[in-house]
Design goal:
The complex is a heterodimer of chains A (695) and B (548). With 695 residues, chain A is α/β, with parallel strands linked by helices. In chain A, the strands form nine sheets. In chain A, strands 13, 14, 15, 20, 23, 24, 29, 32, 35 and 36 form a ten-stranded mixed β-sheet that branches. A six-stranded mixed β-sheet of chain A has the order 3-2-1-4-11-12, sandwiched between helices. In chain A, β13 and β14 form a beta hairpin. The longest helix of chain A is centred in the first third of the chain and has 31 residues, at 201-231. Chain B is an alpha+beta fold. Chain B is 30% helix and 22% strand. Chain B is built from twelve helices and 19 strands. In chain B, the strands form four sheets. Chain B has a seven-stranded antiparallel β-sheet with strand order 2-1-5-4-3-6-7, sandwiched between helices. Chain B has a four-stranded mixed β-sheet with strand order 8-9-10-11. The longest helix of chain B is centred in the middle third of the chain and has 29 residues, at 174-202. Classes of the chains: A alpha/beta (695), B alpha+beta (548).
Chain lengths: 695, 548
């Protein structure tokens, strides 16, 4: 896209639909309430508002880029198609048996999430492929015909097909799908060898089922959206942001909606990645805190870390294992139940606990005075002087300090004997501990040292908490970008077109078969390129090849980056060296005497991102003018401190304010603790740096 | 700075994160599959008296009490005067560690400003420890592998070459085992780094005040919870299969005010085979079961574990004496919660579940070429599988789910890449859940066949074949387990056996017991179970009186 083009990013979230419109004159943004019955209406309203702000004609828009949590919500709320699942005899219950473990060890009344397809709607075929794709038991035509009859008789809207080892040989899945399609052309059919052709039956079956479950609804919604945009005079093509952080055509999205599950949060990570490139930062921890949850993502060398599996629709306090494991490419994020609305309570040992229950936006924190009685993180922040009661959300929501005090006093002081200010401090400290601990564990799991990262904080809650989080994590530098409230929508505008093709192809490395690998890679590249060409024919592209490898006998694999080339059998040395490098980075050592093996491959084709404008760094400058003196509770000092209050608009490039300081704007408030100093940057960001010893 | 109550709360919270990081480091770096896949490890922080302050929540509860006690053994054996900075201690003594030789425990003293302030300890299951390998067939612990007495793995930072050479010479996978010993030491260091940062942040130089706060707060919360259990004496007996003769597990709970004692007097004597359980492991699972029902929210530390006073007479199968074989102590260990919860039910009705399959059905498969002269390589395959859990007062049991252990199964597709077997079936075992107002969880059926050119040997360590999980309050028993070939040939439930090429092994895992009279089950639920095939028509009629 040229710099003169007009592009609009639209993110439908649970509460708000965010719009960011990029035009030659700059960026126009707005928020409108999400419309649950007609999500496309909010999009039209938002685009019209943003276009009016920018003074541009709807017909002049060149691209609409869309991401949404609607697909995830459909899964969580179980509003999907009447669905049948066809699988191999003997494996009818894979999705119900899950991993056979419990995600909460001490709860005798634990309940597991119900599978998306009830057992009565799961059917089996007498057939079997072996691990190398060899046919162990052929699929008889009669059995296929009988299954077609059964499905038709059942009145299903959609069918998912997942057979054992179909990533190695898809013939039986295709045979079954073709017979169904011939008999019922209108039926929505998803097959696992297309949707997620990777080894491991549980994630593959879950993924094809999730896809089939939401497909009719998503296709219908996207069709309506395109139609309504056209009627409104928007002639631009529509693209979707997928979970892996790239764009695909709306047609691809309608066929593979499971790739959209994490599209909203992925937009936030792309936003942070774009900033990281602009600021020349190669190790970034993105921290996105909203009203209910906080999300953490590692961004290295300007790209968010991605993974091949993730969990959606967690049913139990965001606990690992309580959701559905899905295998499609995804920006890897840790999500914790920590936000402004998180509710504080006292446990059986008299300790303050925060979250994951949330007062959300309705009824909201006690200080909103909209019926919320429980003390929340926002109430605690208010009591600690970190929020201005007169000027919250630009004065739109007056906050009641008295209501906050009452809630904290009633719920947190009676059984503990704490004073209100101590309890409020305990609430914010606990929520900050929760987030800091999650961030630290995530970096440890990835073999990284968090001290060497720069944090980028966005979302309504991050500017309040990020500086304290940096103190806890030993992080020296923090960036609070402008437009933090619509970060995901802005991120959509910074994403490349990309498609990640995956393939299960098991090989022991000492029997590396280059011919088979090259054939698979060619096919994967063709597949990925076709999807990218849908949106960006002729654009310059890059490819990224990853092998998933392990030592023989290990239960799981690590991603190993490899050069994308035509392999020869002798390349096993090169591959082994790359594996050992990756293994050493993650685990600190390699294991002599063991053989390596490859399980899955992934190939990404992506358009080349335009060069970012490098942002000149301001490390020093002149003091910013303060509005007035206020005071807030500085957690590290355990004391109220006198602080300068500065308007965000006064923090122009090179303007400095030393902590303790409060930087205010309509959307949010940035707390600069005593240990940090804020410096305005060229792109409107705030850079918070730990003061030197001298300061 | 003198820490306030809030500071102590925050530090306690942080300690949990410190030990989680310690455990994460171990999971990442350990080679052993059962550590990575099954979470068979533990990690914790202790004060300088050897009292446990915090423990990571990991996959298996078997280490809970076991590790909590182990550090006091190290203190006694090493002697306070012989503890130096950068020392690392080690043992795999089943009676001083966590119950069998495969678990290695490593304890590292931690210092601040030259003063000894506490210990980090961790335990992990290693892939091999020599001897006969992992199985129940040994008759003395000497046959089960190398026993490392409590000793120094490193003194003042210098690793003992003698120990390393001794271990390397005695185990089948020396690189992995020695590597895991280093991983254990490294995870303690990771925990220590984080602890030191915290102490700097809060300005404390020792752990004494924090330890008292954590332990006394937890002790009080646990005693308060126990005080809610009605007073009295409550006994229960559970008969399980054992190796070659049935085992009676007998417990009596004595509850008086805020004190609770559990004693296993009356339990059967030891077995000649490796199903015996050292007392420390019995205590771990008994405590786990009681804690789930009485004080599930209190984190594990000396204060929350001490109030459960658990004893078993030395020489019974749940307090095996040296040199008894103890390799597969997990089978009976996993059944211990069923016996204590059954007793607790008499004190606290409508709280605990019915009995479940409980003991994991691990299967260790050795694939060997049918023709010994062929070039085909040998292969080893390990599978973890679970039966059904008991129904709860308000909920059905969980089908094919690990309780009390918390061990994950592996993908069949991945397993078929590991060794030359075909798993033809791994699905729910219809009709195996005990009938009840709340139905027991279903077991599962597994069929395994050697691939062309191979026979398979498997090491059976399965229970609840002769003695099914009992229902509660009128609920029916779950289905008993079965071990057979698909042609109907019956096999033994313990010990090594052969499946020749062309035959298929069929394992039918036990279901959980039902809760409450089946007649009281919601009719809509019976009809739904029928539509889903969780129960058969015959059962619907016979057990539930359901006529459609």
């Amino acid at each position: 896209m040229t710099s003169s083009s007009i592009r609009v990013g639209v993110d439908i979230g649970g509460t708000f639909t965010d719009v960011a419109l990029e035009h030659p004159g700059g960026l126009a943004t707005c928020k409108v309430l999400t419309n649950y019955s007609q999500p496309e209406q909010a999009i039209l309203d938002g685009i019209a508002q943003a276009a009016a702000q920018a003074g541009c004609d709807l017909a002049a828009i060149d691209q609409v880029i869309h991401g949404t949590t609607l697909v995830t919500n459909a899964l969580i709320e179980r509003r999907g198609a009447k669905l049948a699942f066809i699988t191999t005899e003997g494996f009818r219950d894979v999705i119900e048996m899950r991993s056979e473990n419990r995600f909460e060890q001490y709860d005798l009344n634990l309940t597991l999430p119900k599978p998306l397809v009830a057992r009565r709607d799961r059917f089996t075929l007498n057939e079997r492929m072996g691990p190398a794709g060899e046919v162990l038991l052929p699929l008889a035509e009669d059995d296929v015909a009988a299954m077609v009859e059964r499905i038709l008789a059942g009145g299903y809207e959609a069918v998912a097909i997942g057979l054992m080892h179909s990533y190695a040989n898809d013939a039986h899945e295709r045979q079954m799908a073709q017979a169904l399609q011939a008999a019922a052309p209108q039926l929505s059919i998803s097959i696992s060898s297309v949707i997620s052709p990777q080894m491991r039956e549980l994630p593959r079956f879950n993924t094809v089922i999730a896809n089939a479950y939401v497909q009719p609804q998503v296709a219908d919604y996207l069709g309506r959206l395109v139609e309504r945009l056209r009627q409104a005079g928007v002639r631009a093509p529509v693209f979707m942001l997928h979970s892996g952080g790239g764009l695909i055509s709306v047609e691809t999205a309608a066929e593979q909606p499971v790739r959209l599950l994490e599209s909203g949060p992925a937009g936030g990570a792309i936003f942070a990645a774009h900033l990281a490139r602009g600021h020349g930062l190669d190790k970034v921890l993105s921290f996105d805190m909203g009203g209910t949850t906080a999300k953490i993502c590692l961004i290295e060398d300007g790209a968010p870390k991605t993974a091949n599996t993730f969990e959606v629709a967690r049913t139990y306090r965001f606990k690992k294992g309580s959701g559905m494991i899905i295998s499609t490419p995804v920006v890897e994020m840790v999500e914790i139940g920590a936000g402004g609305g998180s509710i504080a309570s006292i446990d059986s040992m008299g300790r303050i606990q925060v979250g994951p229950r949330s007062a959300a936006s309705e009824p909201g924190p006690a200080c909103y005075q909209r019926g919320g009685e429980a003390p929340t993180v926002t109430d605690a922040n208010l009591l600690l002087g970190r929020l201005d009661p007169e000027n919250f959300a630009g004065g739109a929501i007056p906050l009641s300090t008295e209501a906050a005090r009452r809630a904290v006093a009633a719920e947190l002081t009676v059984s503990t004997g704490l004073e209100v200010p101590d309890a409020a401090f305990g609430v914010t400290e606990m929520v900050d501990e929760n987030m800091a601990n999650a961030a630290r564990v995530h970096t440890v799991e990835n073999g990284r040292d968090i001290e060497h990262f720069t944090m980028i904080g966005f979302g309504g809650g991050a500017p309040l908490h990020a500086c304290r989080l940096c103190e806890k994590l030993g992080i020296e530098e923090l960036i609070i970008p402008p437009g933090a409230g619509v970060g995901s929508a802005i991120g959509f505008l910074k994403a490349p077109f990309s498609y990640e093709a995956t393939r299960g192809l098991f090989q022991k490395l000492d029997q590396f078969d280059a011919t088979a690998v090259n054939a698979a890679l060619n096919e994967m590249e063709r597949e990925a390129r076709a999807f990218v060409d849908d949106g960006a024919r002729g654009a310059a592209t890059t490819t990224r090849l990853t092998a998933f490898m392990r030592y023989s006998g290990q239960g799981w694999e690590i991603p190993v980056s490899l050069p994308h080339k035509v392999f020869e059998n002798s390349d096993q040395k090169l591959i082994l060296a790359a594996f050992e490098d990756a293994y050493r980075t993650l685990f600190g050592r390699i294991i002599d005497g063991l053989k390596a093996e490859i399980t899955n491959w992934s190939l990404v084709v992506a358009t080349v991102l335009p060069d970012v404008v490098k942002i000149a760094r301001h490390d020093s400058g002149t003091p910013a003018d303060a509005n007035r003196e206020v005071s807030f509770f500085d957690a590290a000092r355990r004391a109220m401190v006198a602080a300068r209050e500065v308007e965000r608009t006064a923090m122009t490039p090179g303007k400095i304010v030393d902590g303790p300081a409060v930087i205010v704007e309509n959307e949010t408030t940035t707390i600069v603790t005593s240990a940090y100093r804020a410096i305005g940057q060229g792109d409107g960001s705030l850079l918070l740096r730990r003061k030197g010893e001298a300061a | 700075m003198t820490p306030t109550a809030i500071d102590y709360q925050i530090m306690w919270h942080r300690l949990i994160a410190v030990v989680e990081e310690q455990a994460t480091t171990l999971i990442r770096t350990a080679f052993s599959t059962s550590v990575r896949e099954a979470g068979d490890l533990s990690a914790g922080l202790f004060d300088r008296q050897g009292r446990m302050m915090a423990q990571a929540v990991t996959g298996t509860p078997g280490h809970v009490n076991a590790m909590a006690e182990s550090v006091t053994h190290f203190l006694r054996e090493v002697g306070a005067q012989n503890i130096f900075e950068s020392d690392v201690f080690i043992t795999n003594d089943p009676w001083l560690g966590t119950g069998h030789l495969h678990d290695i425990t490593v304890v590292s003293p931690t210092f601040r400003n030259g003063h000894h302030i506490g210990f980090f300890a961790c335990t992990a299951h290693v892939v091999d420890i020599g001897g006969r390998g992992f199985g129940p067939d040994g008759n003395e612990v000497y046959e089960e592998g190398l026993l490392i007495p409590i000793m120094k793995f490193a003194e003042r930072g210098r690793v003992s070459d003698d120990l390393i050479r001794m271990v390397r010479a005695n185990v089948r996978a020396p690189d992995m085992v020695v590597g895991d010993m280093y991983s254990l030491a490294a995870c303690n260091e990771a925990g220590d780094r984080r602890l030191q940062t915290m102490m700097g942040e809060f300005g404390i130089d020792d752990l004494d005040g924090l330890s008292d706060f954590v332990i006394e707060t937890s002790r009080k919360a646990t005693h308060d919870a126990i005080a809610k259990v009605p007073d009295g004496s409550f006994a229960n007996t559970l008969q399980v299969d054992g190796y070659d003769a049935p085992v009676q597990m007998v417990v009596r709970l004595d509850v008086a005010g805020d004190r609770l004692k559990a004693d296993f007097d009356g339990t059967s004597g030891m077995s000649r085979f490796g199903v015996n359980v050292p007392e420390v492991y019995t205590r771990a699972y008994a405590c786990y079961g009681l804690k789930c029902a009485i004080a599930p929210d209190v984190p594990n530390n000396t204060g929350s574990l001490d109030p459960f006073e658990i004893t078993a007479p030395e020489g019974c199968i749940l307090a095996a004496k040296r040199p008894a074989p103890v390799s597969v102590r997990h089978v009976l260990g996993h059944l211990v919660p069923d016996v204590v919860l059954g007793a607790l039910h008499k004190a606290m009705p409508e709280t605990v579940p019915a009995e479940g399959a409980s003991a994991l059905w691990n299967i260790q498969i050795s694939a060997r070429p049918s023709d010994a002269q062929s070039d085909l390589p040998n292969a080893e395959v390990l599978m973890f599988n679970s039966g059904g859990t008991g129904a709860r007062p308000g909920f059905d049991g969980l089908s094919a789910t690990a309780f009390p252990s918390d061990v994950s199964t592996m993908s069949v597709e991945a397993t078929e890449h590991v060794g030359p077997i075909t798993v033809w079936r791994k699905d729910l075992r219809e009709g195996s859940g005990g009938a009840g107002a709340m139905r027991g969880g279903l077991g599962q059926t597994i069929e395994i066949e050697p691939r062309a050119g191979y026979d398979i040997y498997f090491n059976a360590m399965f229970d609840r074949v002769e003695n099914p999980a009992r229902g509660r309050d009128g609920g029916a028993d779950g289905a008993a387990g079965r071990v057979e070939l698909t042609d109907g040939t019956k096999l033994r439930s313990k010990g090594r056996q052969l499946v020749k090429n062309g035959r298929r092994l069929k394992l039918s895992l036990p279901g959980g017991g039902g809760y409450g009279a089946p007649g009281a089950r919601d009719r809509a639920q019976v009809s739904a179970d029928l539509a889903d095939g969780f129960i058969t028509w015959a059962q619907a009629k016979k057990d539930y009186g359901y006529e459609g």
